[in-house]
Amino acid sequence: MKPETAAKKLGILLEAAPPEFREGVVTRDELNALQEDPPEWLQVLRREGPHPRSVMAAKLGISNSGLARGGVTDPLTTVEIRALLAAPPQWLVRERATQAAVRAEKRRVAERDAGRAAKGGGGV
Question: Are 42 and 12 in contact (CB under 8 A)?
């Protein structure tokens, strides 16, 4: 597979990976080996970053769109993410509240649908 695909599956930023990973092709067996027994460089990248957008968003508790709305365009390290969480700017407070509301609504709809299904009501 392409290095881009492998990096995404590993949850790392491709640009931060070593050249031999970025420039090569990763077989399914190699990917499995990296996942099962990650080398030091992969452990460091996962632990310290810089992180891809999806990982940054998850660590901050917001959506990828929330990152864009907050003006975050560059990859962040774990230290930078922790600093944002320790002293959250207004945009981060707003995005976390938005994300919490979205999750609550998804739970409410899922519970409603489960209740309907239990009653035999079927569809939505």
Answer: yes
| Mean pLDDT (whole number) for 27-51 | 96
Distance CA 14, CA 53 (A): 12
Per-residue pLDDT at 1: 94
Give the separation between CA 28 and CA 6, rounded to whole angstroms: 9
CA atoms 108, 110, 113, 114: torsion sign: negative
Cα separation, 109 vs 124, in Å, equals: 10
Alpha-carbon gap, residue 3 to 65, rounded angstroms: 25
pLDDT at 114 over 90: yes
> Where are the alpha helices (H) located in the chain, listed in sequence order?
3-10, 19-22, 28-36, 40-48, 53-60, 64-69, 78-86, 90-118
Q: What is the DSSP letter of 71?
A: T
Predicted confidence band of residue 124 (pLDDT cuts 50, 70, 90): low
pTM value is: 0.81
Question: Would you call 37 exposed, middle or buried from its count of C-beta atoms within 10 A (0-12, 13-18, 19+)?
Answer: exposed
